[in-house]
User: Fold this.
Amino acid sequence: MTAPIPLPPALRADLESGLTALALDPALAAPLLDYLALLARWNRTYNLTAVRDPHEMVGKHLLDSLAMHRYVDSLAQRGGALADLGTGAGLPGIPLSIVKPGLRVTLVESNGKKARFMREALRQLGLKDARVAESRIEAFAEPGAYDAITARALATLPLILELGGHLLKPGGVLLAMKGQRPDEEIAALPDGWEVRAVEALQVPGLVGERHMVTVGRRGEG
Assistant:
């Protein structure tokens, strides 16, 4: 059940091209495709993601996740901790863990099937700095333990902070991956939080807007 399935050879070239466009080493395609093969295999039985086509998974899952890699560079360099909230099948946390050795990633997911898949993926990929927390976000009891939290298409900015803001240590930030610039969500941020930056992201091969929104506690920036 957990063995990877063969992937079309053309996927490697597409992924290597995307990695180069993101200023990442194209040699990282090998472990990323190992993860993708596992995901495609498990997805046949457990319905982990609505994206079924491995070609689509390269852009919509791998490269979309990795478009934020530069925002965790400093964390990885100092062994900082990132909590990926509502990570699903491990996106963006597992791809980030692959390309950023030293980054300590906690994959927070309440769905048991997805948590089991991620544990197996971490074992097979040998990702020693990543772990799975099978928990609802609001019940995850590690307050103040994280330099950053991230979420990819999880919820609005106010709701992400309501559910997971307690996980951030002083000076910690939310790195939220969004589609269109979320001005209404920004205007509805809860008291005590402020936007530090909103930057457009370029995802190789994907059409449509993507933005990184950085949010921190007011007065800590």
Observations:
- Helices lie at 10-21, 29-46, 54-66, 73-77, 93-99, 112-125, 157-164, 183-187.
- Residues 29-46 form the longest helix (18 residues).
- The chain has a mean pLDDT of 93.
- The first strand starts at residue 81 and ends at 85.
